[in-house]
Amino acid sequence: MNDTTSRSQFRASLVVFMVSLLFSFLAWDSYFNSENPLDRSLFSHFILAMGLLFSVSVGLLVRSLELRHDELKVELREKVNELLDKTRELQQAEVKSTAMYELCFPLFSSDGLKSLLDKAMELTGTLFNADEGSLMLIDSKNKLYIAAGRGISMETSRKVHLDVGERVAGLAVQQKREFLINGGLENYMLFRGIEGNPLIRSSLVCPISFGEQVLGVLNMNRTATRDKFTAHDVKKASVFATLVGHAIYIERMRVALSEKSQELKSSSHPSRP
């Protein structure tokens, strides 16, 4: 029985109770205070009827309170189960995040930028079940080039140079946002006029950033895998791309500091004529 039924019974019990109380008061007043009091026998029957109404109203009231009590118990149980489910989800998310951080740890101990980028591309298969993908960086001319790839040929990698804002990867950099693409590009108004690869079933395109600075873009595709990327994958890819961005920035700083150190050593020990 739902909440509406219990509330209706509660209201009905109150109505019956108030009516019986009103008529009892009127009968009492008529019997003792009226110039033409009710017959004693009639008054007795009336009191019995009012007693019956009182009993019915109390029964309805008790029943409605019992129903409401049961409903509150069910609601409480549902709320507790909901909180437990959310707690489990948070625990699972924490475990997955910890696992991802552990898997990504080698990025910060790579031997050079090329090794770092290759490890990042390997992780796209482990973490996201991507069949292929590319990691594009921005060069000194503000163009995107493929710095590392997985499942794509070197010839294709050398040919690709995109302006910021060009194609999906360029738009991800320009707008500093992720793109989840399931199906062909023709299904999305934003990508009308951009030719897509018909073999790609699902794609994730995510900018690689360090703070406010966009360093490049990460592209992941599923071609053989039937499952499509989800909104959860987008959130996870955003975290992963941020880790990659930090690792790239740290590696570049390490190289810059090493070069500066070499310059300082050279300047402090000038060659003799």
Commentary on this structure:
By secondary structure, the chain is an alpha+beta fold. The chain has two domains: 3-94; 113-262, 2-Layer Sandwich (Beta-Lactamase), CATH 3.30.450. Helices cover 60% and strands 15% of the residues. It contains six helices and six strands. It has helices at residues 3-33, 40-104, 113-128, 154-159, 167-175, 231-268; strands at 132-138, 143-150, 161-163, 179-182, 202-210, 213-222. It is elongated and about 130 Å long. The protein starts with a helix and ends in a 5-residue tail after the last helix. The model has no long low-confidence stretch (mean pLDDT 79).
Strand order of the largest sheet: 3-2-1-6-5-4
- Whole-number count of domains: 2
CATH C-level class of the largest domain is Alpha Beta
User: Please, how many helices?
Assistant: 6
Radius of gyration: 38 Å
Please name the fourth-level CATH homologous superfamily of the largest domain: GAF domain
Q: Could you give the distance between the termini?
A: 102 Å
Mean pLDDT: 79
Task: Name the helix and strand elements from N-terminus to C-terminus, one letter apiece.
Answer: HHHEEHEHEEEH
Low-confidence stretches: none
How much of the sequence is in beta strands? 15-25%
Structural class: alpha+beta
